[in-house]
UniProtKB/TrEMBL annotation:
<dbReference type="InterPro" id="IPR029062">
    <property type="entry name" value="Class_I_gatase-like"/>
</dbReference>
<feature type="active site" description="Proton acceptor">
    <location>
        <position position="235"/>
    </location>
</feature>
<feature type="site" description="Important for substrate specificity">
    <location>
        <position position="192"/>
    </location>
</feature>
<dbReference type="GO" id="GO:0005737">
    <property type="term" value="C:cytoplasm"/>
</dbReference>
<protein>
    <recommendedName>
        <fullName>Homoserine O-succinyltransferase</fullName>
        <ecNumber>2.3.1.46</ecNumber>
    </recommendedName>
</protein>
<feature type="binding site">
    <location>
        <position position="192"/>
    </location>
    <ligand>
        <name>substrate</name>
    </ligand>
</feature>
<feature type="binding site">
    <location>
        <position position="249"/>
    </location>
    <ligand>
        <name>substrate</name>
    </ligand>
</feature>
<dbReference type="GO" id="GO:0008899">
    <property type="term" value="F:homoserine O-succinyltransferase activity"/>
</dbReference>
<dbReference type="InterPro" id="IPR005697">
    <property type="entry name" value="HST_MetA"/>
</dbReference>
<feature type="site" description="Important for acyl-CoA specificity">
    <location>
        <position position="111"/>
    </location>
</feature>
<dbReference type="GO" id="GO:0004414">
    <property type="term" value="F:homoserine O-acetyltransferase activity"/>
</dbReference>
<feature type="active site">
    <location>
        <position position="237"/>
    </location>
</feature>
<keyword id="KW-0486">Methionine biosynthesis</keyword>
<keyword id="KW-0808">Transferase</keyword>
<keyword id="KW-0012">Acyltransferase</keyword>
<feature type="binding site">
    <location>
        <position position="163"/>
    </location>
    <ligand>
        <name>substrate</name>
    </ligand>
</feature>
<comment type="function">
    <text>Transfers a succinyl group from succinyl-CoA to L-homoserine, forming succinyl-L-homoserine.</text>
</comment>
Length: 308
C-alpha cells in the first residue's frame, strides 16, 4: 500500500530498501481517492526506530494512508534528535481539531511508575477521551493498553517480579472475528513488559472480548465489540533484533535480566535468535486497518460518531 509520509523522513529509506511502497505528497495528490487519516502518538524514547516498526506494519494494504506523527509534549526525547522532532512531529494541540480514521498509541518505558506519577498522565487521559470523539478505531499498544484499561474501566495493572520477555505461542479465541481473519489457530508474538492484568479482569468488562491469549502471557489481543478500541499487550512490531538489544542493554546496566524465552537457539544468547512473529504482526495491522477502520469509518470524517 502507499503510505504517505514526508519525503525526507528517515523511515522512508529503510522502507524503500525493504521493498515497501511509500509515497510522497506529490504522488499521493494525483490519486483521486479519499485516503485514510491515521495518527501515531509515539511515546517511545527512540522515535525513529518505532516509526519504522509501525510504518512497516501499516504497509500491507492497498489503501492509501496519510500519517501524522504526534508528540505528547515539547520536551526533547532522550534518544531522538530535536531536529527530527521539530521537522516531522506535530503537537497534540496542532491536531486536536482533526478527526482520524485510526490512531495508534505506542507503549512507553513507564512500567514502574504509578499512572499519577507519569509526568504527562493528564495529557494522555485528555487524548484518550478526545479519541472517543475524534477517532473511529484506536489501537493501544503495551503500556498504553494497560493505561487505557485503567482510565476507562478502573482496572490497574499488577507488576510482575520478573519482566515478561520473549516470544510466546498464543491461541486464537475468536476465530470469526475480523481482526483475526487469516490467523492460524496458534501464532507467535513477542512480549517485553512488567505490567500485567489478569485475563479474568478483561472477561469481566462488558463490551470487551479477549480475541487471543496464552497461558504464559495472559490476554494478548483485546477489542471492544464496537471495534473502536483495540488493546495489544505485546509487541508485534518488534524488529528481529529488538529483544536481543534489550537484553544486552539491561545486562550492560547490571539489571540481571532473564534471557528472553523462546528466542535464542537453545535459549543461549550467544547463538542466533529465531524470528517467528512478523507475518502475524503484518496481518494483525492489515486486518485492523481494513475491518476495524476502513470498513467502519464514515466517508466524511465530520460524521464520525462519538463513542458512548
Amino acid at each position: 500500500m502507499p503510505i504517505r509520509i514526508p519525503s525526507d523522513l528517515p523511515a522512508q529509506d529503510v522502507l524503500n530498501a525493504e521493498n515497501i511502497f511509500v509515497m510522497d505528497g506529490e504522488a499521493a495528490a494525483k490519486q483521486d481517492i479519499r485516503p485514510l487519516e491515521v495518527g501515531i502518538l509515539n511515546l517511545m524514547p527512540n522515535k525513529i526506530e518505532t516509526e519504522v516498526q509501525i510504518l512497516r506494519l501499516l504497509s500491507n494494504t492497498p489503501l492509501q494512508i496519510n500519517i501524522d506523527l504526534i508528540r505528547i509534549d515539547n520536551q526533547a526525547p532522550k534518544n531522538t534528535p530535536k531536529a527530527h522532532m521539530d521537522a516531522f512531529y506535530l503537537s497534540f494541540d496542532e491536531v486536536a481539531h482533526k478527526n482520524y480514521d485510526g490512531l495508534i498509541i505506542t507503549g512507553a518505558p513507564l512500567a514502574h511508575l504509578d499512572y499519577a506519577d507519569v509526568k504527562y498522565w493528564d495529557k494522555i487521559t485528555t487524548i484518550m477521551e478526545w479519541a472517543r470523539r475524534h477517532v473511529q478505531s484506536t489501537l493501544y499498544s503495551c503500556w498504553a493498553a494497560h493505561a487505557a484499561m485503567f482510565h476507562f474501566y478502573g482496572h490497574n495493572r499488577q507488576l510482575r517480579e520478573h519482566k515478561l520477555s520473549g516470544v510466546y505461542t498464543h491461541q486464537v479465541n475468536a476465530p470469526h472475528d475480523e481482526l483475526l481473519r487469516g490467523f492460524d489457530p496458534e501464532f507467535n508474538a513477542p512480549h517485553s513488559r512488567f505490567g500485567e492484568i489478569p485475563i479474568d479482569v478483561y472477561h469481566s468488562v462488558e463490551g470487551l472480548n479477549v480475541l487471543a491469549s496464552s497461558e504464559q502471557t495472559g490476554a494478548y489481543i483485546i477489542a471492544s465489540k464496537d471495534k473502536r478500541m483495540v488493546c495489544i499487550t505485546g509487541h508485534p512490531e518488534y524488529d528481529p533484533e529488538t529483544l536481543d538489544q534489550e537484553f544486552t542493554r539491561d545486562t550492560n546496566n547490571a539489571l540481571s535480566p532473564r534471557i528472553p524465552e523462546n528466542y535464542y537457539e537453545n535459549n543461549d544468547p550467544t547463538k542466533p535468535y529465531h524470528v517467528t512473529w512478523r507475518s502475524h504482526g503484518s496481518l494483525l495491522f492489515t486486518n485492523w486497518l481494513n475491518y476495524y477502520v476502513y470498513q467502519t469509518t464514515p466517508f466524511d470524517l465530520a460524521d464520525l460518531p462519538a463513542k458512548k
